[in-house]
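CATEGORY: protein folding

GOAL: derive C-alpha cells
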Amino acid sequence: MIAHQLCRPVWARWLETARLAGRLDLPDPAVAQMVQWIPPRWDWVDPLKDIQAQVLAMEAGITSRRKVVEATGYDVEEVDRENATDTARAEGLGLRYRTSPGETQGARATPATRPDPGDGSADDSGDDIDAAATDRATNQE
C-alpha cells in the first residue's frame, strides 16, 4: 500500500526533477520508472510451518524461489551473492556443512513415505521388521 501511494509518486517526481535538472542522463526514462518495491515481511505465528509451506510451493512449481525470498523482505540477487561467497569460503577452508544453499534445507512439511511391508513392494533384505518398528514409533509421536 505504501509503495503504491507514497513510494511510486515520490520516485517518479524525483526521476523527473533529476532529469530536468540535468543530473540524470537516461537514454530511456521509462525504464527507470520500473522499480520493484520489496516491503518487509510480516512474521507469522508459526514460522516453521510458513517456511515448510514455501518450500513445498517451490517444489510443486507453484511459486518461484525469487518470490519466496522477496516475500521475506530480501533481494534475491543479494542472497545469492552471499550464498556463493559463503560456499566458496567454506570450500576454501575445507569446511563441510549438512546442507548447502540451493538444496532443500530439511524444511519438509510431510515425512517421506515408506512402502507398506504388507503390499509386497519391500525388498527381501530383512529391513521389513526395522521399517515396521520405525513406522509404529512414528505413529506414536
User: Anything to note?
Assistant: The two ends are 44 Å apart (CA to CA). The CA atoms of residues 57 and 63 lie 6 Å apart. The chain is about 50% helix and 0% strand.
